[in-house]
Structure formats: structure tokens, C-alpha cells
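Sample entry (197 residues):
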Amino acid sequence: MKRFDSVDAYFEQEHHYSEGIKKLRDIAAKTEFVEKLKWGGPVYTIENKNIMMIGAYKNHYGLWFFQGSFLSDPKKVLESAQEKTKGMRHWKFTDNDAIDEAAVMAYMEEAIANQKKGKMITPAKKTATIIPELLQQALEKDPGLMEKFNAFSPYKQKEYCEHIGSAKQEKTKVTRLEKALPMIASGIGLNDKYRKC
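Predicted structure, serialized as C-alpha cells:
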């Protein structure tokens, strides 16, 4: 997706949904939203909290409400986003003339009111990573190895712990540990080869 250096540049792009996103921007301008450039596109905030985005894509354009799960959705137009973004809801349009200004304004105003009431999904607290006994013993025997393991980000530590600890048989745990130790000693994460670092 193309990145822009200003909100105005985003709305000035040549796109088959240019007219539609400009209409949405005009409606947002009638609210108390503060328009900001984030992630290369327009984001609308209240009290420095992200409330809504406007975006145009290949097959649709629309509104993305960060805490949209709290919206009453009287028109039944909101779609759930990915599961990991539990609060996000999309209102997609495929026609530049499909915008009902009064309805869009009502959704925006409700999103603003919800923010002022403090309605928001709070992320679940992450549970501490439990280091499998075999790995713990290996780390305790080698302070250098322990230092390398502790230098990993929490998610990389968790990947190793889950990989070794999830094996059902003891011999599989030992095999996984034997393969993991040289990687840890080299500062290589379990799945680094799949990541673009």
C-alpha cells in the first residue's frame, strides 16, 4: 500500500474511489475529530486516542472504527476485522454515491461519544512464559547461553519454550532442545529464517 507524507496528499491521490473518500472526509470535518497522518493514511482522533480511519483500496473504500464493536450499528453495515483486532469494525463502500451522510455522521458521533465514556477493549494481560525444565537446566549450566536467551525478545523466547515444551514425548523434547541450543548460542530466533529481518 502506498504511503503518503500528508493527509492532503492521501485525499489528492488519483483513485477510482477518490470522490467517496473525500465525501467521508468532509463529513468527518463536521465533527470534533482531529485529523492526523498515521501509518501513511488519515486517522481521526479524540483526546489523542485513535477512533477512526478512512481508507481506499482496490475493491472498496470506507471507515474503520478502532472500537467499532461498541457501536450500536442500526444499519447493520459493520463487518468484523481480523480476530486479533477484537474491537475493529469496517464499514465498506463500493460506490462513490452510496454514502448516506446522516447515517455516517451518526456512526462517527457515536464513536466519539463512546470514546468520551471510556468504552474500549483492553488487551488481555500476557501470561509469563514458562521455560520447560530441559531448557532451564541447559541455560543454567551455561551462563553464556543464558545471556543469549535473555537477549531475545519475549516472543522469541516464547517460541523456543513452546517448541520444546509442546512435544508430547520426552525424546522429542530432547531432540528439539539439541537443535535449539546451537541456534540460541548464535543469537538466532527459532523462526528467524521465515522472517524478513
